[in-house]
Amino acid sequence: MKIHQISGYIQQIYLAEYPDKLLLLDGASRADVGTILRYIRDELNRPVSDLKAIVVTHMHPDHAGAAHRLKALTGADIVSSEQPKAWYAGIDGVAMHLTDLILARYMANRMGKPKRNLWYQRKLKVDHAVGDGDTLPYFDDWQVLTTPGHTDRDISVYNAKQSTVYVADLMVEVKQRLIAPFPVFHPNQYRNSIDKIYKLNAERVLLAHRGPVSFDEKAKQHILETAPRRPVTHWRVTKIKLKSLVKSLLARG
Fold it and tell me: Pfam families attached here (predicted)?
């Protein structure tokens, strides 16, 4: 098995290649569909039907956006966390979905990327719902690890034979230091997830927005020391900014 790292629209894409099949370690963004298909056909010289499974680690635009379209074009199955309801359920879910799309567009602008279609369905149609300790369908050398915190349903995938774990957005790198992502909905669960990944002692930790990193004791401690202890979410940040604005207006009055 070989893992290919592909530069995506606003994140890294990881494609695991086997002699008879392919595994996409995350659902990428809607803008990455063509990139993924071209890589399979042109770089690997394989039919796109060799893609057998697409993991969706969580529902953000750069991790779930390409899943449905890729399934339609390749026949691959979608694998994601077993959950009782959709992440973007209800009126609040609609608002959060739109906000996340705006944030993805903002990130693309910051990176100097051209405008692309990022729209995707806010409710994922899962072929295989998985839980902690399960193996991936068709790929029993990959184990599912539940690693919530960033959202309530984040999963990582671990290959013990290769000593490699893909953690998606569980951690990001800023100024050459690993830190917690934004948002963090569940701070306590987040800390447990960081500890779970550290205890794997994996040689390669693959990040969605960086690539492979070394995750040692020093890196773990820095994340735990700097990670939020209360939820840091879109709405909470908006409320803080609104309060600051009101105070400023009252002070002027």
Answer: Lactamase_B
